[in-house]
Amino acid sequence: MDEATLRTARAGHLGSGDIGTEVRVAGWVATRRDHGGVLFVDLREASGVVQVVINPEEQPDLVDLSHALRDEFCISVLGSVRERPEGTVNPDLATGEIEISATEITVLSPAAPLPFQIDDRSDVDEVRRLEYRYLDLRRPRMAANLLARSRAVGAMRSTLADEGFLEIETPTLVKSTPEGARDFLVPSRLRQGSFYALPQSPQLFKQLLMIGGVERYYQIARCYRDEDFRSDRQVEFTQLDIEGAFWGQDQVFDALEPVIGAVAKALRDLDLGTPFPRMTYADAMARYGTDKPDIRFGMELVDLSEVFAATGFKAFSGVLQGDGLVAGINGGGLGLSRAGLDGLVDRAQALGAKGLVWMVVEDGGTLRSPVAKFLSEAEQAGITERLSAEVGDTLLIVADSVALTRAVLGALRNELGQPEGHDELRFLWVTDFPVFELVGEGRLVSAHHPFTAPVDVVEMEERPETAVSRAYDLVLNGTELGSGSERIHDPETQARVFKVLGISDEEAESRFGWFMRGLQYGTPPHAGFAVGIDRFIAILQNEPNIREVIPFPKTQTGFDPLTRSPGPVDDPQLEELGIDLRPGVRAALEDEETPE
Amino acid sequence: MDEATLRTARAGHLGSGDIGTEVRVAGWVATRRDHGGVLFVDLREASGVVQVVINPEEQPDLVDLSHALRDEFCISVLGSVRERPEGTVNPDLATGEIEISATEITVLSPAAPLPFQIDDRSDVDEVRRLEYRYLDLRRPRMAANLLARSRAVGAMRSTLADEGFLEIETPTLVKSTPEGARDFLVPSRLRQGSFYALPQSPQLFKQLLMIGGVERYYQIARCYRDEDFRSDRQVEFTQLDIEGAFWGQDQVFDALEPVIGAVAKALRDLDLGTPFPRMTYADAMARYGTDKPDIRFGMELVDLSEVFAATGFKAFSGVLQGDGLVAGINGGGLGLSRAGLDGLVDRAQALGAKGLVWMVVEDGGTLRSPVAKFLSEAEQAGITERLSAEVGDTLLIVADSVALTRAVLGALRNELGQPEGHDELRFLWVTDFPVFELVGEGRLVSAHHPFTAPVDVVEMEERPETAVSRAYDLVLNGTELGSGSERIHDPETQARVFKVLGISDEEAESRFGWFMRGLQYGTPPHAGFAVGIDRFIAILQNEPNIREVIPFPKTQTGFDPLTRSPGPVDDPQLEELGIDLRPGVRAALEDEETPE
Asked: In this predicted model, what pLDDT tens digit does every residue of B265-293 receive, in sequence order?
């Protein structure tokens, strides 16, 4: 086989300059149209589409074959390039001025009847698309996404290489940390009873590279997360991972902004303004009710506690006396019916609020609201002023614990104001994250991860709930693209963080002893970041989910409909690994097995 | 933390142009020398090394601190750049004309006593190096290897991107194929009793990309192989994987040669001549006794069957009557003693030969050999002529089955002639590999893999032992760098190959049904290749094994001495996965557990 015998030209590159030449092209039958015996075939390949004309009067030899052609046959066509007849030029097509008059056609591979049309307009069930992903990838939209992704990572790499970063591969068969649940495990055959884990990130290895003197590292790293069902996540995903020695936050931002900019340039031809705006976590929570604000629109949260400091309205005064928060947003001219407004109340309650107060600004500035009669004129004026309310605006007020008020208003704000899609790109650094967050019954966990440097170690020990760390996130249009931090670079601070987290010395040794030992040998200060590539590309491509930018994704439960994976394995394989299915699992599998 | 407070200049970039300026540098204490109270510190960082001078008379404040400094402390130094005193210039060091006179030193991180010296001259046990890999990576040789690897993959990527290849990520949690032993398995938690596998290569996914219309794909892909102990392999390894639609062998070679050339240019500043020479598998076996000839030296195998066609020497005539082969090599002027020659005989027998005939060409051209008396003059003249023997040469002759004669002479040839190291690079394409090889008791297995196109399907079915495929290897200095082939692109041929391999329809369906379905939808002819990156870089860096060019390698049994991985996991984790250790394994583990 030789490409020259299959094609001498690329279909999508032909134009009026080629008129009169004989060419051979190869590709797939995208469409066929029979116009009074003359067959028009759109031949599609990676470079584009060209029209092939098969005229039975000119080429009687091709009649039988042209009748046999079906959609998605892979063919090679010899013919002459000619101008399209007047009135048939297609300005939407790069090759729309010309066509190929076929003199010879070879079917390289026929195609069985298709499970769905290869057509961006067709609306196919996603599982079926994944089952035949190789056909789905022929759709122009998916082909564009693959191309965009390749260009994006290329732009990342060349930007980083120009800045002297080394691309370094870290292992993916790593240590399993017994207490760190939700690693994927890989049983060892040569050491039965022992397991590797697949990495959730290269975090500790990249820190070891800093200890190893690398100074500027990056990697496009495959990572793994065995999570329960959660929307728009994948069991394996890809991140741009970077780390720098002698770095602080500013060096991370300075390194990443050009990388992000290069990707935006490559995919959107956009020149992003830099530096990106920065906002502290505390500000983000107060003004947007979330640590990932979408700053493409306003509708900021406004603290109304002062307005209601002396209110007689029990629902508000009670909350304020209990250290709660009364806050509101100005939803603008929503023009909702009473039923629509009640729907917002239902939504707020579904989000956990006890209730939601709505107010509509009437002509003359009076507030129409079920609670208006409980509020003084001064309070009503205060609301109007603080929320910059104008006639026709709908105001939404929540009174609850600080966290809940912010969370509910932040969610309502997004639901009411967030633009569709991602035509505009607004990046934001959110900085000064807390060291810890409280989960369950007051248990402290790391807000980022336990290798994040606290701003003040004593504060971290004495007031862990409010202590601030040197961690930061990058947010794009209300989506967290990634996070990073300055890292702890001395073993003592690291040990003190483990202690506040309630990790015993024994546990710290068994999970991280190997890493803590490394910290003892002249560890440079260092900092880094990881950007979720799947999500970043999905946003840039205006795709609703990351599966659209992953060539062979799995479903949200980690299943691959194409290969039907994961699947059963033979008992001898398990025996070699020294493992067995638990009896209940084995029984359930055997029950499932039905003859096909 | 801010880099500007830690360093304003890069140590290795300082030179005489900086004399008189004040700089701040940061890095590691590589060496300390006390010359009469004046301390000389070599400060090392990624950019290079600079000498720092701490003079107690000039800087009394620094005395205590300078005494506390130890090797591999991470420090930041403020000082002025000055010319070195006459006679102390170090021409071996890029910064050897200058030194920094320190005025302020900050210890960023102290270092505990080192397990070994960070020094290319020190000869440290490899397991210990791996246990403290982060220190080992500080050695200039290892730092150079990391840099070289990063540059090499960068050169690969940019060459391929310029040629319009898309970099596409294929999954690494893939289908386990029950009969395909030695996949690493990953138990699924959400589907207990089901398993993913880690891919041995992206083979089928890259073929699906061709079906998907990608046309030019590449990936630097992590692959996994659960092998028994075998020298210089890793459980996870990296390959450059490429594939092209409408391609044959020539397109693969045309695509890869510039990639290989770009790497040689980047790491060796070499301009490789292209095209690389090509040799068929049959020629390689006949001339070099191996499918991966080292063509840096001659000493080719010479078929002596004609010389001995009518010989009276039973050892040879018996072999020839039994369709065997008598062949020899001219080892040149080895100058071996009788004991040395006998050693070669022992070696040949260890390699499986029944014996080895040696002959030394004496002055006057007579052959000294234990068997000379059994050979006619014509035969002796024939040997001399065919082997171009000259006075002093040692000739080695083996008479055995064709395969064994070639294997033994090929091995002896390498042992006698192969140059040390890899100063010279000689690439070679070996083409036209057989479709199958025979293993065990005459069972056929794919020589490459079962997706390789046979040259002739009927020949493949009728004479499978000798049938030729469209497969090829790339060989560098006698090492196989990688292999590739034209692929089967129609389901019927694929089914016929499976049939010859003795794979039943049911087994083909269960293992590869998902892939065979894909072949039905207009699959373009396609071909591709995979280059083992670890080995390629190791050779270019003149390293004796691939672990030297892998940042965090495992031992040959798949163990990581740094993290002590693989390791045990908790029972609740196994329970979540629906698996358990087999009783014998669990008992053995419990026996092992000793209180520390």
From this structure: 999 999 999 999 999 999 999 999 999 99
CA pair distance B544, B524, nearest whole angstrom:
41
Across the interface, which of B138, B238, B521 has its CB nearest the CB of A111? B521
DSSP, residue by residue, A153-186: HHHHHHHHHHTTPEE-PPPSSEE--TTSTT--EE
Q: What is the pLDDT of residues A8-44, one digit of tens each?
A: 999 999 999 999 999 999 999 999 999 988 999 999 9
- Candidates A73, A173, A212; nearest CB to B137: A212
Token pair belonging to A27: 């590709």
Residue B371, domain CATH: 3.30.1360.30
Chain A contact set for B251 (CB, 8 A): 2-3
Q: Which of B112, B137, B167 lies at the smallest CB-CB distance from A213?
A: B137
Q: What is the DSSP string of A437-457?
A: EEETTTEEEESS-TTBPBS-H
| Residue B217 falls inside a structural domain | yes
The answer to whether residue B121 sits within a structural domain is no
Query: ipTM for the complex?
Result: 0.95
Window A:549-568, CB contacts with B under 8 Å: 550-552, 554, 557-560, 562-568
How much is the pTM?
0.95
- Does residue B366 sit in the same domain as residue B459? no
| Residues shown for chain A | 596
Q: Which of B117, B565, B570, B586 to probe the A interface (max A CBs under 10 A)?
A: B565
Please write down the HEC assignment for all residues of B44-108: EECCEEEEEEECCCCCHHHHHHHHHCCCCCEEEEEEEEEECCCCCCCCCCCCCCEEEEEEEEEEE
- Write the CATH number for A103: 2.40.50.140
pLDDT at position B83, please?
96
Instruction: Enter the tokens of residue A439.
Output: 């989960």
Residue type, A576: E
Contact residues, chain B, for A228 at CB < 8 Å? 190
Q: What's A51's DSSP letter? A: E
| Euclidean distance between CA atoms A530 and A225, whole angstroms | 15
Instruction: Indicate the pairing of strand A357-361 with strand A394-400.
Output: antiparallel
In the structure, what pLDDT confidence band is assigned to residue B595 with cuts at 50, 70 and 90?
Answer: very low
Q: What range defines the domain where residue B224 resides?
A: 129-278+423-432+524-586
Q: Does A587 touch chain B (CB under 8 A)?
A: no
Q: Is B427 on the interface with A (CB under 8 A)?
A: no
Low-confidence ranges of chain A (pLDDT < 70): 178-181, 229, 593-596
Q: Is residue A542 part of a domain?
A: no
The pLDDT of residue A227:
83
Query: Token pair for residue B251?
Result: 């397109």
Task: Determine the 3-state secondary structure of A461 from DSSP.
Answer: helix
What pLDDT is stored for residue A360 in this prediction? 97
| B141 contacts in chain A (CB < 8 Å) | none
Q: Chain B neighbours among A 162-201 (CB < 8 Å)? A: 166-176, 178-179, 181, 184-198
Show which of residues 14-33 on chain B sit within 8 Å of chain A, judged by CB atoms.
26, 28-29
Whether residues B377 and B462 fall in one domain: no
Does B173 sit within 8 Å of A153, measured CB to CB?
Answer: no
Query: Residues of B numbered 241-300 whose beta carbons fall under 8 angstroms of chain A's beta carbons: which are they?
Result: 244-251
> Is B135 in CB contact (< 8 Å) with chain A?
yes
Beta strands across the sheet bearing B325-330: B302-303, B325-330, B394-400, B357-361, B367-368
How many domains in chain B?
Answer: 4
Q: Nearest Cα to B514, choosing from A561, A555, A394?
A: A561
Mutate to test the interface with B, among A49, A227, A234, A563 (most CBs of B within 10 A): A563
Pairwise CB contact (< 8 Å): B486 & A558: no
Residue B179 pLDDT level (bands cut at 50, 70, 90): low
